[in-house]
Structure formats: C-alpha cells, structure tokens
Write a structure and sequence with these properties.
With 411 residues, this protein is α/β, with parallel strands linked by helices. The chain has 17 helices and 14 strands. It has helices spanning 3-25, 39-56, 70-80, 97-103, 116-119, 124-129, 162-172, 189-198, 215-230, 240-248, 259-262, 305-315, 318-326, 341-344, 347-355, 372-383, 389-409; strands at residues 29-35, 61-67, 89-93, 131-132, 135-136, 139-144, 147-151, 180-183, 252-257, 271-274, 278-279, 285-286, 290-298, 360-361.
C-alpha cells in the first residue's frame, strides 16, 4: 500500500473533523415553553429563562417562551400538543391532568427522571396534585389557595372561628347601605369548597365514585344558607366583580379569595391576610380550600425530552422559586423557599403558606370536567332558594353519574 495515500487520507479526515466538530457545537436545541402569565409573573419567568439560557449557551440549549391567553390555553393544548404542533413544555393547573392523560400523547410521564432529592423539594400535597393513577406527570411550580382577606380599618383582629366570623360580620353588615361583614362568590363551587372541606365533604370517594349528595356536602350548604338567610351577613347575587367592588369601596370587611384578588385591591386599602376560620358546626375543623397547582409538563411528542426535563427541574429549584416569589408574586411549590428570610418576612407569602397546610388538591380525575356544570346549577338553585340543598345535590349527582357512564361506555 502506498503510505503517501494513507497519509493524505488521514490528513483529509483530520481536516474534516476540525471543520465538522465546531459546526456541531453550534447546533442549537430549542425548548419551547407555553404559559399564560402576564405582568409580574411573566417578567419573573422571563428573567429565570434568561439566566438558564446564559448558563446553557455553551451547550447549545436555548429556551423560548410563548404567552398564550388563558381563556384559550387549555383548548390550544388539547388541539395542538397531541398532533406534535405544540411546545416541549407547558405550564398549567392540575385540574385538566386526568383528561390529558386519558386522551393520550399529550403529557409525558416523568417517573423515569425523578429522584428523591427532586421530589423532596416540594410540598407533599403539590406532588400529589401532579400524580394521576400512581404516575407522576409534572413538577409542581406554584400553588394557589383561598384565604381570608380583611380590611384592617374595619377588622382589628381577623376571626379564627365561625362564631367569631358571624359575630364580627353581623356588626359590620348594614344591607340598607350596601355594607357587608363578609363577601365572597359563595354560589361558585370553587369558592364553596373550603366550607365543604371543613365538613369532610368532597366530590369523589377513595375509589373515584361521585359523592356529591353526601351528608357532609349537604351540611355545608345548609351552613352556607344559614349565613345567607338567618345571619344575613352576605350580599345577594355574588360575583367576583361585586366582591371586588365592595372591598375597594370599604363596603366589605372580609373577603374569601386567592392571590389573584390582591392585584385587584385599590391603592389606599390597608388589607391583611389570615387563615380561613374553623367551623363550629363541623366539629371545629378548619375550612379546607382546594389547592390548585400549576405544573411544568413535558409534551409527549417533544423530541427534546431530556433537555425539557432539565429546564423543568431548574425552573422549580430554590433560586428560581425565590425569584418567582419575590418578583413574580407567586407562591412556589418548593417548600424550602419559605425558609428564605425575605420570603418568610413577606406577609402574603406567610399567609398562603400557612393556609396551604390545611388545603386539599383539587381533583385531577378526568370526570372532574363533568362536575362543574351540574354543581353550578345546583349551587345557584340553592342560593336562589329554588331547591333545598339535598334535593339540588341529588339532581347534580344523577346528572354527573349519567355523564360518566356515557364517557365510560365509549369505545
């Protein structure tokens, strides 16, 4: 063999490697993230993404974000992701988790990636919210719960029990002038859930059977109607707009709502936050709001799952949780962030962190989507005094059972 030819071949290969390797290093992996944040939340997320991109630039990984209007977000995920037309990651609450899992090719299970160090960073109930039939499908990013918001000018000491709540609210209620001691959207099932939870009420039992007309649920509605009819501490025909207006005009002393309400409070209103009261009629048990958890999910059709998980893990880690808390005004699922001195001193973070201790994850079963309409109708008939609580919930129970049976009978 001609050794000169071998040398020329080797040189050519070396030259090719020298040219090809740098070009490969420049190849970029793009991770697309969909979210529905606006304002401070969006700014904080973009700051975290920028830091991640700077750290990963040498490895050719880049995260880009797309803000999707919330009203269209769920439908967009349902339509685009299974067809491979969606993002690598999307951020959404757990209430749709079961439906997307059942639909298939939407959310990637992530048990394979998880380790104890990662799962141990979160509030346990937030990991529960990311779990469907024993499989984990997302990393929890933040949580939202209803708590008590009160006007400090009107309420010096927030009530800790239902007896104190009623007594305080009665003193501050004057229906003739449109003033109420307590205001919240009590005809909405989500806002009623804390009172229902105090009685041990729920939507599904341990086996997933619908139990809307249970004695506990009925008792919670009877207690609500006592506040409305006998104690007369609540405004008629409640809505989020009415509640906000009353509070901002100084005509509502106490409001039950979540972190989204705080941004609607008018400047000049000196408000405080406290834990929801315990309910004497429920044996002194605390009101237990539903906890909604925004998860970071990997889209099943993503071609960059490992890189996507790396970003999801980064996004939910402690330094980023602090940014999301202090700059985005979110309540992170990462439990360790609440040990940070600045976060621990923040009255808003402190209040919601305390409230979540008695919260329960909103059901993420696919059947939950069939509950809202019948129960909304039932709640309205009760509040409008068109039906008694037991009769109204019996109707809702039958309707949901029928819809679930139809769902399960489909091939």
């Amino acid at each position: 063999m001609d050794l000169r030819w071998v040398r020329r071949l080797a040189g050519g290969i070396a030259c090719f490697v020298m040219i090809a390797v740098p070009s490969l290093a420049l190849a970029q992996t793009e991770i697309v993230v969909w979210h529905s944040y606006r304002g401070e939340e969006k700014t904080a997320l973009e700051k975290v993404v920028a830091a991640y991109n700077a750290a990963k630039a040498a490895r050719g990984v880049k995260v880009t974000t797309l803000a999707v209007p919330f009203d269209a977000f769920a439908d967009k995920i349902t339509a685009a992701v299974p067809r491979g037309k969606g993002p690598d990651i999307f951020i959404y609450a757990q209430d749709r988790l079961g439906g997307w899992v059942e639909a298939g090719n939407t959310i990637e299970p992530i048990d394979f990636y998880l380790d104890k160090e990662t799962t141990g960073r979160f509030l346990p109930t937030t990991m529960e919210a990311m779990t469907y039939h024993g499989t984990v499908y997302g990393l929890p990013l933040d949580f939202k719960v209803i708590a008590m918001v009160y006007n400090k000018k009107l309420v010096a000491n927030p009530p800790k029990t239902s007896a104190e709540l009623v007594a305080t609210a009665k003193k501050l209620t004057d229906a003739g002038t449109g003033r109420f001691g307590l205001a919240y959207w009590y005809s909405n099932f989500y806002y009623h859930a804390p009172l229902m939870g105090a009685f041990g009420g729920r939507v599904f039992d341990e086996k997933g059977k619908v139990v809307l007309n249970s004695a506990e649920n009925v008792k919670s509605l009877e207690t609500l109607m006592k506040w409305v009819e006998q104690d007369k501490i609540l405004p008629a025909e409640p809505s989020t707009a009415l509640v906000t207006s009353l509070f901002n005009e100084g005509k509502a002393a106490i409001v039950f709502s979540g972190p989204w309400f705080l941004g609607e409070i008018a400047k000049g209103i000196d408000y405080g936050l406290a834990q929801l009261p315990s309910i004497a009629e429920a044996g002194g048990n605390p009101m237990r709001p539903w906890m909604t958890v925004e998860g970071v999910y990997i889209a099943a059709p993503s071609k960059n799952k490992e890189a996507a998980y790396d970003f999801a893990k980064y996004l939910t880690d402690l330094p980023q949780a602090r940014t999301l808390a202090m700059e985005g005004r979110q309540t992170p699922a990462n439990k360790n962030v609440y040990d940070d001195p600045q976060v621990a001193a923040d009255p808003v973070m402190k209040a919601f962190r305390k409230q979540v201790e008695v919260a329960t994850p909103m059901p993420n079963l696919v059947e939950m989507t069939m509950v809202w309409s019948p129960v909304t109708t039932a709640m309205n008939t009760v509040v409008q005094k068109s039906a008694l609580p037991k009769a109204a919930m019996d109707v809702a129970q039958k309707e949901v059972e029928r819809d679930i049976a139809r769902l399960r009978s489909k091939p």
